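Supplementary Text 2. Reproducibility record for the structural model of the 303-residue chain.

All settings were left at their defaults, and a single model was retained for analysis rather than an ensemble. We include the record here because the model underlies the residue-level annotations in Supplementary Table 4.
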Amino acid sequence: MGKHGLTVDNLISADVVTADGQFKKASATENPDLFWALRGGGGNFGVVTSFEYRLHPVTQVLGGLVIYPLDQAREVLRFYRDFCPGLPDEAEAYCGLLTSPEGMPVFALILGYNGPVEDGEKVLAPARRFGRPVADLVGPMPYRARQMMLDEPNATHGLHRYWRSAFTEQISDRVIDVLVENAASFTSPLSALIFFYMHGAATRVPPTETAFAARRPQWDFDAIGQWTDGAQSAEHIAWVRALWSQLEPHLEGSAYVNHLAEDDRPEKVRASFGENYGRLRQLKAVYDPTNLFRINANIAPAG
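Retained model, structure tokens:
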């Protein structure tokens, strides 16, 4: 997203079946208001049956994890928050508190560079040199391999999941302390606490150009509870909720719409659409006046 923007920024057109059963083409020149709403509207405006995208050639990239023991997590997180604002568009730096295959809580920098590998080596060198990592897995790889490197075990069919998410423009020392303390008591080895840094091309699009309005450098933070045994759900959900009660006062009241939880408050849903919420309500009244598409981050039709 730093180099080429968001998926919605690369959408050329979409075929849509609207709530009244009509088939429509949405693009910059056909039904442009519907096209605007689809790019960030959270599934409120129809069933899209096909997409046409602008593609970018990507072959060999730099990517991988740098892994640290939990006792270094505080200092590496402080380094990370200062490292991100200086990244060029081609670079990406995410991070997470995770559990190692051996069952130990660890901290990982999740790094990538979408350009010449030798340039990426220089840009990412400070992150790879910081602290005393137990493993540096960063190296050249096909883009597809980097895209899939966290799929196991997170993309396994049948996992139970409960999560909370919010944007934040800063990572305070208090947030860092809460995260490290709670990572030491993960109730499931599949759970994770992750920051995704949003920057570059994705943040240079005016907020009102698409329905997605969160166009500024910031982190998307996710507290993810995941587990395999449904009989243990109450314990893992309680862990996420207790953690979130400590974190929420230090984060923003909005989130990436795809990361909203089913039980997030309506005001958080509204805040997550930002300054575009009013226009989205008006278009909802045009394309789905009965709110047929409501099992989502719902936008109520304007009355």
